[in-house]
Each structure stands twice: as C-alpha cells, then as structure tokens.
Amino acid sequence: MQNYISKYMEIIAKNGIRNTKQKEYILLELISSSTHLTAEQIHQRVKERKIGLATIYRNLKLFESLGIVKEIPSGGTSYYELKLFARKPLHIHFKCLKCNCMTDMDDSEITMEYVRLNQKVEKKLGAEVMDADITLLGICSACKAKFK
User: Fold this and answer.
1) Domain segments of the chain: what residues?
2) Which annotated residues bind Zn(2+) (predicted)?
C-alpha cells in the first residue's frame, strides 16, 4: 500500500503541489476501501485526524484534475475511485438502491462485453472511446437477503 501512496505523492509533487498528511490520509482511504467512497464517507473515516469535509472535497477535485481519481456521479451523489494503477481499467459499476454501496463488476465475461461495446461504438462513430461511466442500479445480494 505504501508503494501506491509513494507513486501518487510523486505525481502530486511533480505538478508543483505540496504533499500533506491530509492528502496521504485521503488516498489511503481510497486505496484500502473495497467499495467506492463518497466525500462524506471518507470524512467519517478521517475526521478524528481533524480533516474537514471541505478539505476532502478540495483534495478530491485536485486528485481528479491530476488523473489520480475518477468521480462517478450517481443519483445526485458522487463516488470516487482511484484511476491510476487500477487493477481493472475497464469495468462497470453496480450501485445498490437500498444501502447505496457502489462496487465494481469484476467478471471477465462482462468485461469482454464491455470491450466489444466500446469497439462497436468506435467503429460506428469512427471515434476513439477513452473512458465510460456505466452504472447498473439494483439491489445488492446482502440487501436482497435482508428484505425477503
């Protein structure tokens, strides 16, 4: 995990921006989370370190401008995921409408369908797809089991 932090902090420094503990703590939360986080969720995890919500929003916007994180808007809420050094650069998101968790669809067959869709769009438009935001909405398995 420290290796990832070092790479991110290097990107920040190369852009003439001062590295701070606040930036490091926010990045650590994004790296260690198994789901995508909102600014408010990050704040809940780091508030004991005296990091305010405005600082989190400011740093998330900075990280986005540097290409470190990607903002995923969904239903009036923004979720954030690390963009650089991602293990799965092509993926689809699933958001639970009950608990609001957002996770990556991690399935090779689904990923191949996603790649084929990108190729079809590129061929049809004569364009190059650089990125996509695909979020499926539904009820996760945990919530589904609770509400049966």
Assistant:
1) 1-82, 91-146
2) 96, 99, 140, 143
